[in-house]
Amino acid sequence: MPKLWKETIAAHRSAVRDATLDTTAALVAERGLMSVTMSQIAEETGIGRATLYKYFSDVEAILFAWHERQIARHLEHLVDVRDQAGDAGERLEAVLRAYALNSNEHHGTELAALLHRDEHVARAQQQLSLFLRSLITDAQSTGHVRHDLSPDELARYCLHALTAASGLPSKAAVRRLVMVALAGLQQPS
Fold first, then answer.
1. Of the candidates 43, 38, 46, 39, which has an alpha carbon nearest to the alpha carbon of residue 63?
2. Do 164 and 148 contact (CB within 8 A), yes or no?
3. How many CA atoms lie within 13 A of 185 on its CB side?
4. Do 38 and 72 belong to one domain?
5. How many whole angstroms from its chain centre is CA 100?
6. Which of 20, 81, 88, 165 is the most exposed place for a label (fewest CB within 10 A)?
7. In this structure, are residues 83 and 75 in contact, taking their beta carbons and an 8 Å threshold?
8. Rounded to whole angstroms, how far apart are CA atoms 161 and 178?
9. Do 51 and 141 share a domain, yes or no?
């Protein structure tokens, strides 16, 4: 098979997959988790049901794939936030703020309850924890973060503290939460 043909097929499959994920998420947001069927997804996406079943076994599989894509995008966003910030302390603060604001925007739905019980969330949490650990290690080396606790422990502290952002009523409250978490990272006097 010529290379161009392979690339065209791969691009087509990727486009069908993305359209399926986006359509399913929109249908669930509009109609509710239990009201969406594979037939509706196929119709809205503009593909046949048989084709849809080649990609995904059921609605739940589509939603998990959509969520994995969202997690990957969120982690990419955090890397971009880190890369745009200044010194080690500013990078840590910017990433914590971006993480908390994202947590505040995505919570409390039946979809979130379904998706956050899967193992890919645990993998994402581990990736995020490693990412934060590296930021904290850098901030410790420049004196921005306390040295009496390990970077692993501080990363876990931050992640757990910032989960409270999901229940906060405003972005201002989220920013205050981040400031409290940052205060906990400072060297004790």
1. 38
2. no
3. 33
4. no
5. 11
6. 81
7. no
8. 9
9. no
pLDDT for the residue numbered 102: 86
Residues 51 and 64 in one domain: no
pLDDT computed for residue 180 by the predictor: 95
Q: Are residues 116 and 30 in the same domain?
A: no
Residues 77, 75: Cα–Cα separation, whole Å: 5
pLDDT band for position 33 (50/70/90)?
Answer: confident
The overall pTM is greater than 0.90: no
CB burial of residue 16 (10 Å; 0-12, 13-18, 19+): middle
- How high is the pLDDT of residue 113? 56
Here the tokens at position 154 are 């501080």
Range of the domain at 132: 59-189
In this predicted structure, what is the pLDDT of residue 116?
59
Q: What share of the chain is helix, strand, coil (3-state, %, to 5)?
A: 80, 0, 20
Supply the CATH number for residue 187's domain. Answer: 1.10.357.10
